[in-house]
TrEMBL record:
<dbReference type="InterPro" id="IPR027417">
    <property type="entry name" value="P-loop_NTPase"/>
</dbReference>
<feature type="domain" description="Sigma-54 factor interaction">
    <location>
        <begin position="171"/>
        <end position="400"/>
    </location>
</feature>
<dbReference type="Pfam" id="PF25601">
    <property type="entry name" value="AAA_lid_14"/>
</dbReference>
<protein>
    <submittedName>
        <fullName>Two-component system, repressor protein LuxO</fullName>
    </submittedName>
</protein>
<keyword id="KW-0010">Activator</keyword>
<dbReference type="InterPro" id="IPR011006">
    <property type="entry name" value="CheY-like_superfamily"/>
</dbReference>
<feature type="modified residue" description="4-aspartylphosphate">
    <location>
        <position position="64"/>
    </location>
</feature>
<keyword id="KW-0902">Two-component regulatory system</keyword>
<dbReference type="InterPro" id="IPR002197">
    <property type="entry name" value="HTH_Fis"/>
</dbReference>
<dbReference type="Pfam" id="PF00072">
    <property type="entry name" value="Response_reg"/>
</dbReference>
<dbReference type="Pfam" id="PF02954">
    <property type="entry name" value="HTH_8"/>
</dbReference>
<dbReference type="InterPro" id="IPR003593">
    <property type="entry name" value="AAA+_ATPase"/>
</dbReference>
<feature type="domain" description="Response regulatory">
    <location>
        <begin position="14"/>
        <end position="127"/>
    </location>
</feature>
<dbReference type="InterPro" id="IPR025944">
    <property type="entry name" value="Sigma_54_int_dom_CS"/>
</dbReference>
<dbReference type="InterPro" id="IPR058031">
    <property type="entry name" value="AAA_lid_NorR"/>
</dbReference>
<keyword id="KW-0238">DNA-binding</keyword>
<keyword id="KW-0067">ATP-binding</keyword>
């Protein structure tokens, strides 16, 4: 704790709590954690705190939710100090409250009465992110993942990955499905039970595993990723369990494997469906006993690592086909999370695209601010078979190859323009349904009046986008006002 002592930059901490004694208690913790924040500013009334947030800089804001009338009031504070780290505290803590507070701008959450150590750990963690050469309040840039191929084993130390504490924030998406996922992550994070994540490639399974680790008590320890598909079959055992000198040709030293490196932290087994059957039984034994042996060793070792695994295959089909051990599956499949493909949560597409555009525009020193209407419509209706990864790579490609204030239709890669030039799936679907639903008893045989056909198509599009007029309009390539106008005319007809 307080690892920045001796090189600490001043940190401006503000504490808002209607109870003066609570505020003073919190303030005492700050001073104890580091001399850098030895003089926190206390507020018991929201108005003066809000005023100061607007006028003066703030690095850490510790805010009591009851004092501001609940988490809904938090946003007003967050917008006044967008660069500050906000720790929300509440005497009425619950998972949904914590999730709502995070959505409203909090980075962390504590339920009252909290131990001084718990608060100290949170503040200390924030302080440890600050380096002398960085402006204190600047959030660290998001780490840019290297292009494929991914490393076989990735070890992330809390200290070397500043933004991991904001794991949930990095998972962009406010669709109903993503809100459910955020909720599940918050509930699962404190548990020790294994988590089993399924979902198509590129849907964010690793990001999800990372968020669970970040929000757990294991966060100060390592998050170790082992990509089972990327490791040659004969090396995978030594990658997981390590080896001793002389265990095989080339084993010149003793080496800890991923399981040992994750001791106290989380071991993420990506692409678990690719694991060889012989190794599956070793993994099962490790899960049952918590013990293992390094390759070539006689000594048994014990570690405490939480297991999270992920696959983009259907695990039950793999069991039926004899490729995956059923007993291992039931050991691992304790807390399941399924990440839906991007095409099933279209509301998330534009916020993700905008986020990637902002990030890559800064990285590549371009001038983009957004997308024009045509580009937006195509981005929103394209099927994105490669999910978020494909969207991310597409935006990166656009930014690298072009410049301007807005991304235009012409800048989109050909495959995306071509696909959208053919009618998107939703439109085909509605036409199919239209054909199937034509009433046979019409005065002119099977011919339905044009306005009724239009109405059916528009209503199908609205259904496909859960009533979202902007998205339905984009898919139909008409303006939202056309939908409003048509709806009025249908109402007039039925009067
Ligand atoms: N909700 C999200 N918000 C922001 N970025 C996301 C989101 N989901 C995925 N990404 C980004 O998309 C890329 C792919 O995500 P990730 O590696 O977690 O997917 P995956 O499901 O594990 O893929 P694979 O099955 O191929 O390993 C990453 O760069 C990740 O940061």
């Amino acid at each position: 704790m307080g690892t920045n002592e001796g090189q600490a930059l001043p940190v401006i901490v503000r504490v808002l709590d209607a109870s003066a004694s609570e505020a003073a208690r919190t303030s005492a913790v700050c001073a104890k954690v580091s001399s850098a924040c030895s003089d926190p500013i206390l507020y018991t009334d929201p108005a003066s705190c809000l005023q100061d947030l607007a006028d003066k800089s703030t690095h850490i804001l510790i805010i009591d939710l009851e004092t501001i009338g609940g988490e809904d009031g938090l946003e007003a504070y967050a917008v006044r100090c967008p660069k500050a780290v906000i720790i929300a505290v509440s005497a009425m803590g619950s998972v949904s409250r914590a999730v709502n507070a995070m959505r409203a701008g909090a980075h962390d959450f504590l339920t009252k009465p909290f131990s001084l150590d718990a608060l100290a750990a949170k503040i200390s963690f924030q302080l440890d992110q600050r380096k002398p050469s960085q402006p204190v309040a600047e959030p660290a840039p998001e780490p840019v993942r290297p292009p494929v191929p991914q490393p076989v084993v990735t070890v992330i130390d809390a200290a070397s990955e500043p933004s991991t504490a904001l794991g949930l924030e990095r998972m962009i998406g406010s669709s109903r499905q993503m809100r459910d996922i955020h909720d599940q992550i918050m509930r699962m994070a404190p548990s020790q039970a294994p988590v089993f994540i399924t979902g198509e490639s590129g849907t964010g399974k690793e990001l999800c595993a990372n968020a669970i680790h970040d929000l757990s008590a294991r966060q100060p320890n390592r998050f170790v990723t082992l990509n089972c598909a990327a490791i040659p079959r004969d090396l995978i055992e030594s990658e997981i369990f390590g080896y001793v000198r002389g265990a095989f040709t080339g084993a010149a030293d003793n080496r800890a494997g991923a399981a040992e490196q994750a001791d106290g932290g989380t071991l993420f087994l990506d692409e678990i469906g690719e694991m060889d059957l012989m190794l599956q039984s070793k993994l099962l034994r490790f899960l049952q006993t918590g013990t293992f042996q390094r390759l070539g060793d006689t000594q048994s070792r014990k570690v405490d690592a939480r297991i999270i695994c992920a696959t983009n295959r259907d695990p039950l089909a793999d069991i039926t086909a004899g490729r995956f051990r059923e007993d291992l599956y039931y050991r691992l499949h304790v807390l399941p999370i399924h990440l839906p493909p991007l095409r099933e949560r279209r509301e998330d597409i534009l916020p993700l695209a905008q986020k990637f555009l902002t990030r890559f525009t800064a990285e590549e020193r371009r001038n983009f601010h957004g997308f024009d209407a045509d580009a937006e419509a195509v981005i929103m209706t394209y099927a994105w078979p490669g999910n978020v990864r494909q969207l991310e790579n597409t935006i990166r490609q656009i930014v690298v190859m072009n410049d301007g204030a807005a991304v235009t239709f012409d800048m989109l890669p050909m495959i995306i323009r071509d696909q959208s030039a053919r009618s998107p799936a939703v439109i085909d679907l509605s036409r199919e349904r239209l054909r199937a639903n034509v009433a046979p008893s019409r005065p002119f045989g099977s011919i339905e009046p044009l306005w009724a056909q239009e109405r059916r198509i528009i209503e199908d599009a609205l259904d496909a986008f859960d009533g979202n007029i902007a998205m339905a309009a984009a898919a139909l390539e008409i303006s939202p006002s056309t939908i409003y106008r048509k709806r009025q005319s249908w109402t007039a007809r039925s009067l």
